[in-house]
Every structure is written in C-alpha cells, then in structure tokens.
Fold this sequence. Notes:
The protein has five helices and six strands. The chain is of the alpha/beta class.
Amino acid sequence: MTKTLSRRFASVLALDISQTMLDKARAFIGRDNVTFLKSDGANVPAQPNSADVAFSYIVYQHFPSRAAVETSFKGVWAALKPGALFKVQIRGVEHHNPQHWSWGPHYTEQEGRALADRTGFITLNVKGAGERSMWLLLKKPDVDRHEDRVATGVA
C-alpha cells in the first residue's frame, strides 16, 4: 500500500512497530518521497497539523486495548491538518479465538462512531458494520467548524 501511495502523493510517512519491517519496506519501495518511522503503535511520531490524509488498514486489530487505539486516533488527529481525512479499518466483530495473534479490540458501528467523536473526528461514512473489517471515513474538523462547535458548547 505504501508503494502505491508514494506514487500518488508528494510525501508519505510510513509507520510500523518493527524496524525489520520498515527496513524491508524501504528496500522494496525504493522511493525518496517516503519517510519510514518506527512507532510503538499508540503514538504517532508526526509533526502536528502536517498531513493531508491518513490511512490505516489491518493495524488496530493488533492493539492490546481500546485505550491504545484511542491514544493512536488522538495522535492521528494531531498530525492531520484541519479538514483532512482519516480512512481507517477497525475490527467490526469479535475474533472467534481470543488467543489468536491478531486478537484485539472490536467495535460495533455505534462504538466506532463514539471512538471517532471522543478523539475529535467527524464521521463521514461507515462501511462494513458487523463485519470483520469495518471502515470509517473520518474528518478532522475545519478550524471554523471546530470553533463553531466550541462556541455552541457542542465540542
């Protein structure tokens, strides 16, 4: 996915918890417009208000807790510019085997929307509710919209 994104965007920030995977990705992609950074998963090592879009697929199902997912969503929110989009896949059903290596938090549609709201995002779309892969299309509020929400006590 990073290689495809690097062909379409001027600059791509790729995060992983594994330095080995980052090294393999760097060798495979071989493009100068991708920055590879190691992360603990929950924290997003990006400059505040620096990204136009964030994308995450088959990541959050590996997180140890909902609190860690929420911390990461807050980090993504901080990295995004006002009005930017976050396309993210989360687990939409409970894993049938809690001992499986990919066991992690799962969410109903209502819980996914609440997660987005708690972390400052506006939910634009939800697809796959009740399925293994539930996709959320989220937006960081525009500065004006955020100010409107704060002024009316909605934030």
